[in-house]
Amino acid sequence: MITYLGIENFALIEKLSVKFSDGFSVITGETGAGKSILLGALGLVLGKRADLSSLKNKDEKCVIEAHFNIKNYGLQTFFDENDIDYDDDTIIRREILPSGKTRAFINDTPVNLNTLQDLSQVLVDIHSQHQTQELFSEGMQFRVIDKIAGHEDLIQNFSVQLKLFKKCHSELLDKQNRLHQNQKEQEYNAFILNELKEANLKTGEQEDLERIVEKLTHVEFIKESIGRSLQLVSDENFGILQNLKEIKSVFQKMTPISQEFQDMFERINSLLIECDDMERELIKIADSASSDPELLQKSSDKLQVIYSLQKKHQVATVDELLRIQLELDEKMISVSSLQEEIAALQESINIQNQKLDELAKIIHANRNKIVPILQNQLTDVLNKLGMENARFNILIEEKNEFFYNGKDEIEFLFSANKGSNFGLLKKIASGGELSRIMLAIKSIISKYLNLPTIIFDEIDTGVSGEIASKMADVMKDMSANIQVFAITHLPQIASKGAEHFKVFKVIHEHHTQSEIKVLNSEERVVEIAQMLSGSKISEAALMHAKELLN
What we know:
17 helices, alpha/beta, six-stranded antiparallel beta sheet, Rossmann fold, six-stranded mixed beta sheet, single chain
């Protein structure tokens, strides 16, 4: 439960601190006195977003600190999981700096807002006026049913399985679309692939074929040129070889004269050897330089196939054509692979669908077991709240599709008067009836929640007199197991609190600020009398206030 709240430099609050006890406490004050500021400050310390407009003095930081006794609520695991020091008396502090930056601390350990919000959900339930409208939502109605059924773990498991199911289903659709697209292209791809395979392409083949064609095309010119070259090299009278031999003979005789002639002789000898080798190569070339019309035709045809494929695929090399062939091969394999993957996914989805169906049936059965219990409990509480003829008919229908929490749709049908037909809650319940129904639900749910504190912000909207007194009795009963706060304008509710806090404004010379104090017995009489009769308190109002308090 919350035991202390300290606020500095927030809205109309310069500085205040207040201690709270367990049980049922009421908070009163004139409209605009600052009750909503208190809730706003508490909301910030519980993880709500903040902005600079919250600062009373824009040059100083705002600090909000709340103390909670959490000894009996099994929260040690949360602290361990988030690496926060645990203490039975836990302190949460929120700071808003003039720069706009905010900081949050749990037991002096810095934490982010998500962690703070996670903890706040198990510390305090703040019921504001607009939340009464949540009664109309299926989400709220299911939360009530499921909380009483106590199968949150089952709902969580279903939610996890559903996410996996949807992910697999999305993946299946993606693969099916890809398969459909690939199948549309498959026939064309198969034709192109077959064309490339029939070409029997090899790396470097184009260059070899181009050399063969070039050589065979100019074979006569090659033969003529080689013949002339051989004549120049090998002629017995004027050939290069004969001349080199004569020069060699001359220098051979001169080698004993000096090293210079010896060196020249060796160079001439090398030239002679090279020239002799060149002659043999020319003879070899001349012998091979023969026309081969069949090879020329075959090579030219293959080159034409290559050129045609390069033009078709807009590439310049055989290697690029081979890459295209490999890609097409992979696409053809991909179709087969996709079909296998789709079959495996479909099987997995069928298994997941079966699991979800089984979980949904258990959830549906649990909910149906709880319905009569909830209907009876609601009727009992509403009877205490002056709605003796109120009846509920809660319908849960299993559908053929998966929702986030099962396969059910729910309808809260309500009848306020004896003999009247059931109708949808949102269509036939008045504002005052909705307030009482929400209080009844909160009182029932509180028995199933391990929650330290609940705060009702004007849940008495639309009711007055004896009904308000009965609502206060319900809240007082709730406070036997949970700390309960009621922010109210009704004296019938204010009189039932074990502690009574008043929020009020104080006007100083240059500014206005909100303050809060706990009222003693005499001050409570005056406050409740004022709530009954206004600023001019009559003796009758004082007497009525004392009667209410007694």
